[in-house]
Amino acid sequence: MANQVRLGIVGCGVIGSGVLRVLADRKGAWEGVQLAATHIAVRHLERPRPEYVPRHLLTDDWRIVCEADDVDIVIEVMGGIDVAHDVVRHALENGKSVVTANKALMALYGEELRDLASKRGLFLRHEASVLGGIPVLHTLHTYFELNRVQSLRGIVNGTCNYILTRMWETGAPFAEALQEAQALGYAEPDPAADVEGFDAYYKLQILLQALRVDTHLLQTEFVADGQPFVGAANSGKPLATLTKPRRGIDSVDAAQIEAARRAGAKVKHVASAVWGEDGIVHCTVGPQVLQPDDPLYFVDGVNNAIAITGDVVGTITLIGPGAGALPTASAVLEDVLQIVRESADKG
Ligand SMILES: NC(=O)C1=CN([C@@H]2O[C@H](COP(=O)(O)OP(=O)(O)OC[C@H]3O[C@@H](n4cnc5c(N)ncnc54)[C@H](OP(=O)(O)O)[C@@H]3O)[C@@H](O)[C@H]2O)C=CC1
Ligand SMILES: N[C@@H](CC=O)C(=O)O
């Protein structure tokens, strides 16, 4: 791949605009690599956009982005499942490597799409799909070879953490805190995915897949195209199961938060996975009351954190911004630059 790298971007909302803002601020240049957007797909061509979005590149046909000769890498930041699945498949089938921030897509179809990319000798990267700006997939892929991971435990949804923090700190009503999270660009296009715990559940699955855990039983809870989604079994891998039903923060009320606050505790939305001796990875996703001696207690606002326990290293905790335009654009563009470097290394 040449040092001039041409990007096709599908979606120009919070994250797509964030990517374009970073490209504009840096004038597209990174140590010998020049990145430039050449096509940008949106749904509403007439919608007002920030000044750093080059309007002449806009199209309302994502196929143009996936097929264009002057696109080297496609960035999928439109969200949703079915069309996004078509976009990523179509891009790969047209010889483009792909970077996506889409958790639902990667939780449900990650294995299929990674296989397709690998068969075509292309890259499919999705660091931004988990924990926003925190390089957790990079860490899991490049570090945990020696160590056997024994558990994961984290705050993996920025919107829920922001809402719970605002309710705890200021007594803000749930609806008001959610509106703030939406205005700040943290929430999903349909915020039910955040507050009902689906987003955290998708992210937990992606983390487990990165650690070669079979998540197909978790996937049966999801619905794609109106049908229950049943993934293929992968024998030989540890199998993840939910030990109790997934919960979001929609069931947490102000009185519970106030009671926790008076007792010096906090309510947090926590995802966890514990590798059992029985070959089962026992998972939970839901609100928990945390005491100040819990390392997740001090993770507030839009921040996320993940504590990864390995049998040799002990517990490593990564903390950072879990949502928002710039942290997520950072993860997207770090993936792009890694693809460029690895393509150059391959020759
Ligand atoms: N917000 C965040 O903090 C984070 C988001 N993500 C993920 O990034 C993705 C994008 O999120 P976000 O930017 O917040 O979402 P937005 O709703 O802000 O943006 C979605 C964009 O996709 C475009 N779009 C929707 N459907 C189509 C279509 N059929 N063809 C072309 N364009 C389409 C929309 O067009 P138009 O503008 O015309 O409506 C819009 O520009 C999601 O997968 C989300 O989960 C990941 C990490 C953090
Ligand atoms: N809606 C998500 C965005 C990032 O993944 C969140 O709030 O964590």
TrEMBL record:
Record-linked Gene3D superfamilies: Dihydrodipicolinate Reductase, domain 2, NAD(P)-binding Rossmann-like Domain
UniProt keyword annotations, A-Z: Amino-acid biosynthesis, Methionine biosynthesis, NADP, Oxidoreductase, Threonine biosynthesis
Catalytic activity: L-homoserine + NADP(+) = L-aspartate 4-semialdehyde + NADPH + H(+)
One Pfam family in the UniProt entry: NAD_binding_3
Example GO biological process: methionine biosynthetic process
Domain of life: Bacteria
Presence of the UniProt keyword Transferase in the record: no
Active site residues according to the UniProt entry: 203 (proton donor)
Location of the Aspartate/homoserine dehydrogenase NAD-binding domain: 11-122
Ligand binding (NADP(+)): 11-16
First-tier enzyme category under EC: oxidoreductase
Keyword DNA repair found: no
Family the UniProt entry places it in: Belongs to the homoserine dehydrogenase family.
The protein, known as: Homoserine dehydrogenase
